[in-house]
Amino acid sequence: MKLVYFNDYRLGVLKGDAVVDVSAAVADIPHTGPGDLMSGLIARFDSYKGKLQAAADAAAGVPLASVSLRAPLPKPGNIVCMAVNYMENGTLKEAAPINAFHKAPTAIIGPGDAMVLPDVPASIFEGEAEMALVIGKRAKNVAAADAFKHIFGYINFIDGSARGLAPQSFFHMKSRDTFAPIGPWLVTADEIADPQKLGVKLWVNGTLKQDFNTDDMAHKIARCIEWVSHCHTLEPGDILATGTNHRGLSSFQDGDTVELETEGLGRLSFKVRDDLKRTWARDTRLERAEKGLSATAPQLTGKYAQPQ
């Protein structure tokens, strides 16, 4: 099943190229807004799956192109992102130690929204294409062998970064408002045969930048859930982003249209806005490495640009 929020945060089920409003089927779930409605549904999904399917089957819905999609998880309790979790197409000699960091819930935006670049002296702004999993039931001290029992579904995820800030910290770099675009929908786990073998692609203004497969993860999904859940409890609706292959990273800048598609999860499209209109070179980290240049492209114009 593919779950969406659309228009004024109506809950919908995607049926082909149509969206069926199923809000009435979940109206009795206690909630104060769309954030805890979705997490409440996820926690009770076994009881509501049949109701949602019946509601979806009973109506034709409206064309997907006629609605405005919203972030399907507007306010997760936890957004945990795995750090340096890919083998970079086998070019790394050994996996980096397992590690992770938090992003603030206010980082979440949805399809068609704008990632806003703040007025800070970052050396570059980047967005990392990731496949994220969504927790379906409370996970605390979970063994790797049991990890998949705690997954509700999967979603496209962008990990926005403001690099080069002093003092250097993941908080300054990662936890900015709008720095976690997700969507376009939340796909339940039963629709994804093997999440450890999915193609992930990211385009900037129609140019393919990132193209990798989740089979290149250094620490696999089960191990990530095990490790994180031994640090703190994961609750239904929490997001665990699984990392990226860094070789295709490039600058995000004002006016960009960014698209992310993970196999089976739809295509997320969003904008980038920078009121300072700064510009950077467009080459990827891999292209720069092949030229013997530094990993990240230099800022070319605008506030904070350094003389070349």
Cα end-to-end separation:
52 Å
Let me know the largest β-sheet. Answer: 12 strands, mixed
- Topology as H/E string? EEEHHEEEEEEEEHEEEHEEEEHE
Question: Would you tell me the overall average pLDDT?
Answer: 97
> Helix count, per DSSP?
5
The structure class reads alpha+beta
Query: Which regions are unreliable across 5 or more consecutive residues at pLDDT < 50?
Result: none
Q: Helical amount among residues, as a percent range?
A: 10-25%
Q: Provide the domain count.
A: 2
> What is the CATH class name of the largest domain?
Alpha Beta
Task: Supply the CATH architecture of the largest domain.
Answer: Alpha-Beta Complex
Radius of gyration of CA atoms, rounded to a whole number? 19 Å
Query: Which word captures the global form?
Result: globular
Predict the CATH topology of the largest domain.
Fumarylacetoacetate hydrolase, domain 2
Strand proportion: 25-35%
Number of strands: 19
What's the CATH superfamily of the largest domain, by name?
Fumarylacetoacetase-like, C-terminal domain
